[in-house]
Amino acid sequence: MSSRAQTSLAARFKGAWQRFGQDERGATLVEFGLIAAPFFFLIFGLLEVCLVFIMSTVLEHAVAEASRPLRTGESQEAGINEEQFRLTVCGELFGMLDCDGRLHIDVKTVTGFSGAQANMPLDAEGNFNDDGFTYEPGGPNDIVAVRVFYEWDLITPWISQPLANMAGNRHLLQATAVFRNEPFGT
User: Fold this and answer.
1) Who has the most CB within 10 Å: 6, 66, 100, 119?
2) What whole-number distance in Å separates Cα of residue 10 and Cα of residue 179?
3) What are phi and psi of 34, to 5 degrees?
4) What whole-number distance in Å separates Cα of residue 107 and Cα of residue 117?
5) DSSP secondary structure code for residue 114 in this structure
């Protein structure tokens, strides 16, 4: 190959290389590829936290509404049992939470407002432990603690790891109402 042909070939490669370096048609795709993973990580994490908050609020509402007949004595006078109270709580969940096997209820008469338990009923492995759960709605002027727990499955396995407080990538939602029964039946 002659030196003139080599110079012409080198000039063409140099020109092609410069055009390639100045071409910006794929820049948007590359930039999106760089920020997509952190962006979606942030969005899915935010959605998971929002879902946990919304479901906690729904559970709090259900406990407040279902506890009112206990407080007024309507449930005690009607002979409402634990299963019927569970159905009342489930009826207040707007169909957003599944009550089958995931909803745990503890209703106890306590000696004082400070006697209400605040601990999470989890064993060492992070599984739910309902030993000692009862249904004692109390009588007139008794102080009653209603605790309702729900085992919520987290959607995003690695993103929601800080939210998991149970085994199996689950979060235990808790709603509590502590009140003094009205002086019903007198």
Assistant:
1) 66
2) 88
3) -75, -35
4) 11
5) G
Decide the pairing of beta strands 143-153 and 170-180: antiparallel
Structure tokens at 44: 């899915």
Q: Provide the pLDDT for residue 141.
A: 96
pTM: 0.81
Please state, in angstroms and rounded to a whole number, the distance separating the CA atoms of residues 146 and 158. 33
Q: Match 């092609």 to its residue by tokens.
A: 16
Sheet holding 103-110, edge to edge: 103-110, 143-153, 170-180
Structure tokens at 13: 């490669």
Q: At what angle do helices 27-72 and 82-91 cross, to 10 degrees?
A: 140
Question: Are 73 and 140 within 8 A, CB to CB?
Answer: yes
Listing DSSP states for 148-175 in one string gives EEEEEEPSSTTTTGGG--BTTTEEEEEE
| SS3 call for 136 | coil
C-alpha to C-alpha distance for 174 and 20, rounded to whole angstroms: 60
Decide if 153 contacts 169 (C-beta within 8 A). Answer: yes
Position 2 pLDDT exceeds 80: no
Q: Which segment of 50-59, 77-86, 158-167 scores lowest on mean pLDDT?
A: 158-167
CB neighbours of residue 120 within 10 Å: 13
Residue 53 burial (CB count, 10 A): 11
